[in-house]
Amino acid sequence: MPKARPVAPAVALLLLALAVTVAFVASLALGSRWLGLDAIPHALFDYSGRDADIIVRKLRLPRTVVAVLVGLCLGIAGALMQGHTRNALAEPGIFGVSSGAALAVVIGLQVRGNTSIGTTVWFALAGALIATYVVQRLATRGTGASPVGLALTGAAVAAMLSAVTSAIVLLDADTLDGYRFWAVGSVADRGFDVAGQVLPFALVGLVLAMINARSLDLLALGDDVAAGLGLSIRRARFVGLAAIGLLTAAGVAACGPIGFLGLLAGHVARRLVGARNLWLIPAAGLTGAAALVAADLAGRLIGGAGEVQAGVVLGLIGAPLFIMVVRRRAVAL
């Protein structure tokens, strides 16, 4: 009987994987110009340069791959954040990672005047990783970081970095003009080169997240109990923070700050598979991937010839979710 218990989470993961697949295929077939399903295999395996082939292979496929990768990263980062802070309202932006990336992008725009996506990715990665390191050093001084300490340190660093960013962009109109295109959060015009640049960071972050899964289960029992069971609290927090930083840095660098995705993915995954992190982490990643691909597709369908950015669509969904969480359940996990 006990061996049958993992069946439900396994089925949930299969259903989430199916949802990602359906969203992926729909993203290739639908948009301002609707293509038949038969156009997809033709474009991928029998490319002849016709209009439908170009749309699928050159335009829709790269951005969909990036959306899956970024959604996976931010979904897992959200689940880890909620676990480490024991806060149902936590999401990756609370650690100051997005703010660090934003400040680095603004500095890069002001110094180099270069708004190319390839250059922006590296500035954003550097800023996000530096911000993660600063939060980690401040929050884990001594024996380790408490959930409240992590949240407060991240919020303080984020507020400070955001203030500096605002001061720079308000004093420089050219920098503000370039920054606003990155800050809205979008997978538009992102290609395989962007995915390749952030993939190593995403893979390392994913490995660290899975390593951190058992430690996070023990931390949920309370720091004293976890320490009594032989867990190194400081090491567990460090690995978790590193995973969150790398995953969020990869996602933010590729597409800009996309709010509420981590919050959404963490909650949906927890409802589907429960609180055991061995199941929760991959479930949150798949949920984030499906949600971001669906949001990007919805933005293209709503916008017609233009498009509504994925970050805007998720904001419209995430804000009501945030209010619902505050009203219907306790903040602490």
UniProtKB/TrEMBL annotation:
<keyword id="KW-0812">Transmembrane</keyword>
<protein>
    <submittedName>
        <fullName>FecCD family ABC transporter permease</fullName>
    </submittedName>
</protein>
<keyword id="KW-1003">Cell membrane</keyword>
<feature type="transmembrane region" description="Helical">
    <location>
        <begin position="308"/>
        <end position="326"/>
    </location>
</feature>
<keyword id="KW-1133">Transmembrane helix</keyword>
<dbReference type="InterPro" id="IPR037294">
    <property type="entry name" value="ABC_BtuC-like"/>
</dbReference>
<feature type="transmembrane region" description="Helical">
    <location>
        <begin position="191"/>
        <end position="211"/>
    </location>
</feature>
<feature type="transmembrane region" description="Helical">
    <location>
        <begin position="278"/>
        <end position="302"/>
    </location>
</feature>
<comment type="similarity">
    <text>Belongs to the binding-protein-dependent transport system permease family. FecCD subfamily.</text>
</comment>
<keyword id="KW-0813">Transport</keyword>
<feature type="transmembrane region" description="Helical">
    <location>
        <begin position="242"/>
        <end position="266"/>
    </location>
</feature>
<feature type="transmembrane region" description="Helical">
    <location>
        <begin position="61"/>
        <end position="81"/>
    </location>
</feature>
<keyword id="KW-0472">Membrane</keyword>
<feature type="transmembrane region" description="Helical">
    <location>
        <begin position="117"/>
        <end position="136"/>
    </location>
</feature>
<feature type="transmembrane region" description="Helical">
    <location>
        <begin position="93"/>
        <end position="111"/>
    </location>
</feature>
<dbReference type="InterPro" id="IPR000522">
    <property type="entry name" value="ABC_transptr_permease_BtuC"/>
</dbReference>
<dbReference type="Pfam" id="PF01032">
    <property type="entry name" value="FecCD"/>
</dbReference>
<feature type="transmembrane region" description="Helical">
    <location>
        <begin position="148"/>
        <end position="171"/>
    </location>
</feature>
